């Protein structure tokens, strides 16, 4: 059923081994990017089962993004041959954990599984519809309610606010729904108020592992504290305070720094070797982060290539540069021939596949121009993100109508939605469709034919993609809905496909790529300051760039544009101040000149040979 102990511990250094073999009691692994923290976590899961004889269903591994959860599941599946055991493991995001607990106890909340999940956008519409808040205050109340739940604070003694919260909560209940913040907020409340339930969950999840602990917020912390019973729980957490990037969403890096005070007898492990990034990438990112103020940098396994710093005239030529470079690197051009630092091993690090590339941006709004350039060059890509197109029209309405039909509710989210009104007759038809036991994909298609009229090619394409993604769910509508609300991404996205990955810096956390482009390295974007009322948290932004840079194994491109069209305006932003701290000798810079014409048949020329 398993790999042997030897195999589970192979390819681990002494510190990693010690952390994997740690058995009972709290423990923390604190180490920098690429030092194998996540590898320790996944090996440990397999080791607990194999050597500790821990039943798979007692293990709970939590992380922050679906992509990360999927990655962990995949890595564990590679170690444990029994598919059944992999299935029994509880691996997911905090949101998914909360959702599971709420669904399992839906009756206590006057709901029925599967519970629907609304987001902040829905909340605003509902508050408006309930007419409990003045129109001008909608935004701030919406925000405030979200924060109260996120930080688990007492509701302030404000009559309007309390009334709004109560009517909103009643409405959610009537719709068999909760909101995103409730996934933690209500779960904590539920466990706090039902001792028997809490005991049962503690009994069920005896081994808890948390990745990216530096990004924990108050609600998540309270949930963990509840589940990890006693003073010496089997709570194993890993993280890196230098990679804390979710302060803006209420994460508090202090939970990681005070872990050893929180859990007095905690063992602590440090890892010192980086297996991901080259020395030059490690050194450049550390100089950028620490600016000479302490904080030694990790050692990589190989010296590596210089970092490419590229200035372009506009966001369009920047995107064009990215697409062309990918094309040329894929074409096997001797792209880095002029670099003296090529070490022996680098032959093997040649780009093999489009999945070796990631393009990272600060804002989602920067993605379309890159998509266009990739399309122009015929380069396949996938956009990875939190608020994906599933939450945009017309897809959103189609999914919502399906959910309402399933729950036997009338469809209410009319405002701003693309769907036409759903009347009584329609309703009969919808219920008939569900009764006919059609597949999710067929249901979605029928709903879209009847109720939404996709206009643009983009909308049509989105709907088509939705039907495709729903296909693997067969007739399991509840599973599909959970996926649509939270993403669960187990089998739907294959990481090894021939596609370039496009995503935000935030979404890239925990991942790694052979070649990384960070576009838009400009003052105002990094740190982000355009349109922001409060000044951005500059240190958090700096860590965000650090996370981005340390995703790269071998090739790192930092690009910026002199002129950028964004949000309907043209900006002229200077280069990001963050780049100033990187040593000159680690950089190879190129200014926006006309791109050198490549001579046909001459595979020798590099883009940097100008
Ligand atoms: P991050 O802080 O970015 O999340 P991490 O510390 O979680 O990074 P991993 O993703 O676990 O690091 O590991 C980085 C890379 O190094 C992975 O490709 C992993 O397989 C590899 N790796 C880790 N440990 C070893 C080792 N002992 N020998 C060889 N490769 C290793
Ligand atoms: Mg990791």
UniProtKB/TrEMBL annotation:
GO terms of biological process kind: recombinational repair
EC number(s) stated in the UniProt entry for this protein: 5.6.2.4
Positions of the UvrD-like helicase C-terminal domain: 279-554
Binding site for ATP: 31-38
Catalytic activity: Couples ATP hydrolysis with the unwinding of duplex DNA by translocating in the 3'-5' direction; ATP + H2O = ADP + phosphate + H(+)
UvrD-like helicase ATP-binding domain sequence ranges: 10-278
Molecular-function annotations in GO: 3'-5' DNA helicase activity; ATP binding; DNA binding; hydrolase activity
Keywords, in A-Z order: ATP-binding, DNA-binding, Helicase, Hydrolase, Isomerase, Nucleotide-binding
Family to which the UniProt record says this protein belongs: Belongs to the helicase family. UvrD subfamily.
Protein name: DNA 3'-5' helicase
Organism whose genome encodes this protein: Caldithrix abyssi DSM 13497
Lineage: Bacteria, Pseudomonadati, Calditrichota, Calditrichia, Calditrichales
Complete-protein stretch covered: 465 to 1074 of 1074
């Amino acid at each position: 059923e398993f790999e042997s102990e030897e195999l589970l511990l192979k390819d681990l250094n002494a510190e990693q081994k010690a952390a994997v073999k740690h058995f009972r009691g709290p423990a923390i692994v604190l180490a920098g990017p690429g030092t194998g923290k996540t590898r320790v976590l996944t090996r440990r899961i397999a080791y607990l089962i194999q050597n500790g004889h821990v039943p798979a269903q007692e293990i709970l591994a939590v992380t922050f993004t679906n992509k990360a959860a999927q990655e962990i599941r995949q890595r564990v599946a590679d170690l444990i041959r029994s598919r059944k055991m992999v299935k029994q493991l509880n691996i997911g995001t905090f949101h998914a954990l909360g959702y599971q607990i709420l669904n399992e106890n839906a009756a206590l909340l006057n709901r029925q599984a599967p519970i629907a999940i609304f987001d902040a956008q829905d909340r605003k519409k509902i508050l408006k519809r309930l007419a409990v808040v003045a129109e001008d205050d909608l935004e701030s109340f919406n925000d405030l309610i979200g924060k109260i739940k996120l930080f688990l604070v007492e509701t302030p003694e404000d009559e309007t606010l309390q009334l709004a919260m109560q009517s909103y909560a009643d409405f959610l209940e009537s719709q068999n729904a909760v909101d995103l913040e409730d996934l933690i907020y209500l779960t904590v409340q539920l466990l706090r108020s039902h001792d028997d339930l809490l005991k049962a969950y503690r009994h069920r999840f005896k081994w808890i592992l948390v990745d990216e602990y530096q990004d924990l917020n108050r609600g998540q912390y309270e949930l963990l504290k509840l589940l990890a019973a006693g003073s010496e729980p089997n709570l194993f957490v890993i993280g890196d305070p230098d990679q804390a990037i979710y302060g803006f969403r209420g994460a508090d890096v202090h939970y990681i720094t005070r872990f050893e005070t929180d859990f007095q007898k905690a063992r602590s492990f440090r890892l010192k070797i980086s297996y991901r990034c080259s020395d030059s990438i490690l050194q450049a990112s550390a100089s950028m982060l620490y600016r000479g103020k302490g904080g030694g940098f990790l050692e990589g396994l190989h010296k590596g290539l210089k970092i490419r710093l590229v200035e372009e005239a506009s966001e369009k030529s920047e995107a064009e540069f990215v697409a062309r470079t990918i094309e040329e690197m894929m074409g096997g051009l001797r792209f880095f021939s002029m670099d003296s630092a090529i070490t022996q091993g680098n032959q093997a690090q040649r780009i093999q596949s489009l999945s070796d590339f990631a393009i990272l941006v600060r804002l989602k709004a920067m993605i379309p121009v890159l998509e266009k350039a990739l399309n122009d060059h015929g380069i396949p890509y996938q956009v990875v993100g939190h608020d994906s197109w599933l939450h945009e029209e017309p897809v959103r309405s189609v999914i919502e109508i399906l959910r309402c039909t399933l729950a036997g509710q009338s469809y209410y989210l009319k405002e701003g939605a693309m769907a036409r009104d759903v009347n009584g007759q329609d309703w009969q038809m919808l219920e008939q469709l569900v009764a006919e036991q059609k597949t999710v994909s067929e249901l979605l298609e029928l709903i879209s034919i009847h109720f939404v009229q996709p206009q643009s090619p983009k909308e049509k394409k989105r709907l088509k993609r939705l039907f495709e993604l729903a296909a693997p769910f067969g007739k399991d509508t509840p599973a599909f809905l959970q996926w649509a609300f939270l993403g669960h991404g187990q089998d739907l996205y294959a990481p090894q496909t021939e596609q370039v990955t496009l995503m935000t810096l935030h979404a890239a956390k925990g991942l790694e790529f052979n070649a990384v482009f960070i576009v838009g390295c400009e003052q105002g974007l990094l740190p982000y300051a355009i349109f922001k009322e409060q000044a951005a948290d500059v240190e958090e932004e700096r860590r965000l760039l650090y996370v981005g840079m340390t995703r790269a194994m071998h090739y790192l491109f930092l690009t910026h544009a002199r002129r950028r069209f964004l949000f309907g305006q043209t900006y002229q932003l200077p280069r990001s101040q963050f780049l100033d701290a990187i040593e000159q000798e680690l950089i190879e810079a190129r200014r926006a000149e006309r791109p050198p014409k490549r001579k046909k048949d001459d595979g020798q020329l590099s883009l940097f040979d100008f």
